[in-house]
């Protein structure tokens, strides 16, 4: 890495002339292409630190090697510098600036500006629109819109009203709209429903409860019971929503909880988002550190919230290091105060602990996904395999004294079930209880198909059973030119692993992860196969019982099962019910036979 003495003469002169004021610095390459924008409380100290002999991240070292030109902009305060830095990064997108970005476009509910307004779904934020939200997801927004239509009688059509009269649609007849299209309601009454919808969306439900209760009592006193029932149902909706929100036991309407963990040159950040007193979503980020300064996290969070659609009123953090400027910059940008809090006790502290536990669990899961399963590594050593068996496929045969024979195949990847690649097989060519021939059939079918389709083979093939099943599978693989492919058999009782080139089994101690992994794979294949076998046997028993009834063919059996669902329900049905499906004569025969 270049030091101040080693860099170009013109750049060294610039570094010597830097002021100690706050501001923004811009690094460019020889072609004047902007590489990086940063802000500093002290421009001289911050910019010169890049060229000191101290440990830097690989990304920053690559950037420093390309720097050929330096520009600065002096500001009055560090907060001004932060806002200017954010604007420059947003407009120029320098290559070496790593920011937290929330690219999600959140859903909103829009109340249109028409004579008879509509309530619609949108993801576009325009100042002229009457918007409510954002909602945590599209489903939540659409459910709220559905409630508007059902209970506040807001129209859901896109007709241009006021120009001509239309016929009332179904929504009017099921009492979800008062049909302004047919001039059946005046504009003032319709707008009253819109006002209720606004109170509902704004969360002012106490005001709404008072108003609806009063109207319900007035309607009841006037003996308008249908109208009173409508207000009663509406009151139930508002009360129910209030109770659902109180379940979260949080009084903070717009709160974000932030936890950051530094690991090497990376920092993981988890943000728990609370809106309307409930946890609605979380966002996790991983970014590279620039240097060892703790201020990196504060800077990234500031950029995240400066460019966010839905900034909170309060941000809860673990430490206040470097975050003093965050609240000031956000307040300046949003024209409202945004508080940064470091709680010591109470609900906010518990939320901080919950977010920390979530981040730790997520990082452990992500680390587990990257690491090799210990059983896979140990199995490769025990079987002297040339490569790790990352993908393994295991076969199992299931039958009842040779009837209803089926086979199952389960797939494991990196020691974990890969259920989308599980397969079921009906045994087609084998009669009677012959597990060896059944194993040869399904193994041949499976890998003949993979070869014909040009798909990858598993790293290890496993058959449930001893030497008999193993040799049957090996013989069919030899016929496919796969005689040398890794293949083993796992005996059930002794828990011994058999291989093709020797009759001497491999015994892995019971406490070792390799054997536990093999048992997991074998048990999963057995479970999957037994489930398929039971289903097939049950279907066969149903059909055989119905097929014994004279005059009842496959078509009528199918109709009966489709209508009643099971033989038991067919048996419990009376003759009139059966006659509706198969006619009176066959219905009587069924009743007599099933008795």
Automatic annotation (TrEMBL):
<dbReference type="InterPro" id="IPR010994">
    <property type="entry name" value="RuvA_2-like"/>
</dbReference>
<feature type="domain" description="UVR">
    <location>
        <begin position="206"/>
        <end position="241"/>
    </location>
</feature>
<keyword id="KW-0742">SOS response</keyword>
<dbReference type="GO" id="GO:0005737">
    <property type="term" value="C:cytoplasm"/>
</dbReference>
<comment type="function">
    <text>The UvrABC repair system catalyzes the recognition and processing of DNA lesions. UvrC both incises the 5' and 3' sides of the lesion. The N-terminal half is responsible for the 3' incision and the C-terminal half is responsible for the 5' incision.</text>
</comment>
<dbReference type="Pfam" id="PF14520">
    <property type="entry name" value="HHH_5"/>
</dbReference>
<protein>
    <recommendedName>
        <fullName>UvrABC system protein C</fullName>
    </recommendedName>
</protein>
<feature type="domain" description="GIY-YIG">
    <location>
        <begin position="20"/>
        <end position="98"/>
    </location>
</feature>
<dbReference type="InterPro" id="IPR004791">
    <property type="entry name" value="UvrC"/>
</dbReference>
<keyword id="KW-0228">DNA excision</keyword>
<keyword id="KW-0963">Cytoplasm</keyword>
<dbReference type="Pfam" id="PF01541">
    <property type="entry name" value="GIY-YIG"/>
</dbReference>
<dbReference type="InterPro" id="IPR038476">
    <property type="entry name" value="UvrC_RNase_H_dom_sf"/>
</dbReference>
<dbReference type="GO" id="GO:0009381">
    <property type="term" value="F:excinuclease ABC activity"/>
</dbReference>
<keyword id="KW-0234">DNA repair</keyword>
<dbReference type="GO" id="GO:0009380">
    <property type="term" value="C:excinuclease repair complex"/>
</dbReference>
<keyword id="KW-0267">Excision nuclease</keyword>
<dbReference type="GO" id="GO:0006289">
    <property type="term" value="P:nucleotide-excision repair"/>
</dbReference>
<feature type="domain" description="UvrC family homology region profile">
    <location>
        <begin position="267"/>
        <end position="477"/>
    </location>
</feature>
<dbReference type="InterPro" id="IPR035901">
    <property type="entry name" value="GIY-YIG_endonuc_sf"/>
</dbReference>
<dbReference type="GO" id="GO:0003677">
    <property type="term" value="F:DNA binding"/>
</dbReference>
<comment type="similarity">
    <text>Belongs to the UvrC family.</text>
</comment>
<dbReference type="InterPro" id="IPR000305">
    <property type="entry name" value="GIY-YIG_endonuc"/>
</dbReference>
<dbReference type="Pfam" id="PF02151">
    <property type="entry name" value="UVR"/>
</dbReference>
<keyword id="KW-0227">DNA damage</keyword>
<dbReference type="GO" id="GO:0009432">
    <property type="term" value="P:SOS response"/>
</dbReference>
<dbReference type="Pfam" id="PF22920">
    <property type="entry name" value="UvrC_RNaseH"/>
</dbReference>
<dbReference type="InterPro" id="IPR047296">
    <property type="entry name" value="GIY-YIG_UvrC_Cho"/>
</dbReference>
<comment type="subunit">
    <text>Interacts with UvrB in an incision complex.</text>
</comment>
<dbReference type="InterPro" id="IPR001162">
    <property type="entry name" value="UvrC_RNase_H_dom"/>
</dbReference>
<dbReference type="Pfam" id="PF08459">
    <property type="entry name" value="UvrC_RNaseH_dom"/>
</dbReference>
<dbReference type="InterPro" id="IPR050066">
    <property type="entry name" value="UvrABC_protein_C"/>
</dbReference>
<dbReference type="InterPro" id="IPR001943">
    <property type="entry name" value="UVR_dom"/>
</dbReference>
<dbReference type="InterPro" id="IPR036876">
    <property type="entry name" value="UVR_dom_sf"/>
</dbReference>
